């Protein structure tokens, strides 16, 4: 079968090969025919080494498709079912799951260290234990979440990561109140989803901050009340908040520099929500006095900060009701053969979400 493979960490191009096999099928596993997958910035971060991932590997973790085969002991799905791929499945038994914090379950991360693809010359890993830049993938059954027949594969793929992450940051993590002032730093697919979540919660002011003009224009279409470049943020903070700072600031880039900017633009007693996935050697600097004196809450948001399956269901309900726009997030649709052009568009910021049709 065909799959896009990164041979070594640090390479910027994927090679689309036709000699890859999805491996590891057996009890507790499912085989999925991938129909659509989104290109998420985390895929780039894994390719360049910001996020740890063994290589060679097949990127992709935001996918949807249909079940081809189920292993022994799998009862919640059957062949022919439509599913979204969940890269962070909950085991249901660990301390985090028992506390109801299923997004902190580590079972899914353990899958990343086990290859689930093979080639004639050796094993190949799937990013985050999945690897959806492939025609087929074998994953733990918990990674396959059934979806209704009326949800298109491209929409389902977005729900598998970016939309769930961004909406959840606003709806679950921030506990955003109606009338709040909000700034979102980084307006790709996840940031736009956070903007939609803030709008759903009734934020009075939603300021989108991004260096790319096309993304700023998109943010306005999705609910931002203003959209500015990073160097315009001090002025808009003064106009919107009287210089005090925003009630909620979402950092959706994953860098200490933008997190520091987000902290400085959060009002005293306000909330900084860290959504971007950054590198282990990139440290955010705060002094102990400001941490104490300003009483700003710093809330990381892992995969939307809530039960993933319930978040999927909520997003589908909101999409059906016309309360969130998911189709509009997809700015490009390409076949797997054009994956490298899609990567370049993401690097330059000219794409919100690219759907790879497989």
Overall number of strands: 19
**Radius of gyration, CA atoms, in whole angstroms:** 20 Å
Largest sheet: 7 strands, mixed
Query: How many H/I helical runs?
Result: 12
Query: So what's the overall shape?
Result: globular
Strand content: 25-35%
Name the poorly predicted regions.
Answer: none
Percent helix range:
25-40%
Mean of pLDDT = 96
Distance between the termini: 11 Å
Quickly give the structural class.
alpha/beta
Descriptors:
7-stranded mixed β-sheet; 6-stranded parallel β-sheet; 358 residues; alpha/beta; 12 helices
Write a brief structural summary:
With 358 residues, the protein is of the alpha/beta class.
Describe this structure as you would to a colleague.
- The protein is an alpha/beta fold.
- It contains 12 helices and 19 strands.
- Helix 10 (288-294) links the parallel strand 16 and strand 17 (297-300).
- 51% of the residues are buried.
List the helices and strands and how they pair.
Layout: E1 3-5, E2 15-17, E3 21-22, E4 29-38, H1 41-47, E5 57-58, E6 62-70, E7 82-85, H2 95-98, H3 107-111, E8 117-119, E9 122-126, E10 136-140, E11 144-146, H4 153-159, H5 162-173, E12 181-185, H6 189-200, E13 205-209, H7 213-221, E14 226-228, H8 233-241, E15 246-251, H9 256-264, E16 266-274, H10 288-294, E17 297-300, H11 308-320, E18 330-335, H12 339-348, E19 353-357
Parallel strand pairs: 5-9, 12-13, 12-15, 13-14, 15-16, 16-17, 18-19
Antiparallel strand pairs: 1-2, 3-8, 4-6, 4-10, 4-19, 6-7, 7-11, 8-9
Helix pairs in contact: 5-6, 5-11
């Amino acid at each position: 079968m065909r799959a896009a493979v990164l041979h070594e960490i640090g390479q910027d191009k994927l090679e689309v090969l036709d000699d890859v096999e999805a491996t590891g099928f057996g009890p507790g596993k499912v085989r999925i025919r991938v129909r659509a997958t989104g290109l998420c910035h985390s895929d780039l971060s894994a390719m360049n080494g910001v996020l740890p991932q063994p290589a060679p590997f097949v990127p992709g973790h935001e996918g949807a498709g249909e079940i081809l085969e189920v292993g022994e002991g799998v009862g919640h799905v059957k062949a022919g079912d439509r599913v979204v791929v969940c890269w962070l499945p909950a085991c249901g038994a660990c301390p985090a799951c028992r506390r109801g914090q299923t997004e902190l379950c580590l079972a899914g991360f353990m899958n990343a260290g086990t290859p689930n693809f093979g080639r004639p010359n050796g094993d190949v890993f799937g990013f985050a234990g999945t690897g959806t830049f492939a025609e087929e993938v074998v994953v733990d059954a918990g990674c396959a979440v059934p979806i209704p027949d009326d949800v298109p594969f491209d929409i389902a793929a977005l729900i598998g990561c970016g939309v769930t992450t961004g909406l959840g940051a606003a709806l679950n993590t921030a506990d955003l109140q109606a009338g709040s002032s909000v700034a979102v730093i980084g307006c790709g697919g996840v940031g736009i989803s956070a903007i939609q979540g803030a709008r759903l919660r009734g934020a009075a002011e939603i300021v989108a901050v991004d260096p790319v003009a096309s993304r700023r224009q998109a943010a306005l279409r999705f609910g931002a009340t203003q959209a500015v470049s990073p160097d315009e943020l001090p002025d808009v903070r003064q106009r919107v908040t009287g210089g005090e700072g925003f009630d909620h600031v979402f950092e959706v880039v994953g860098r200490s520099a933008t997190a520091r900017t987000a902290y400085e633009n959060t009002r005293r007693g306000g909330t900084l929500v860290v959504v971007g996935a950054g590198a282990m050697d990139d440290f955010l600097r705060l002094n102990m006095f400001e941490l104490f004196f300003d009483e700003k809450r710093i809330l990381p948001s892992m995969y939307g900060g809530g039960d993933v399956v319930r978040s999927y269901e909520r997003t589908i309900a909101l999409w059906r009701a016309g309360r969130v726009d998911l189709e509009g997030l997809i700015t490009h649709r390409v076949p797997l053969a054009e994956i490298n052009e899609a990567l370049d568009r993401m690097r330059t910021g000219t794409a919100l979400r690219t759907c790879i049709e497989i």
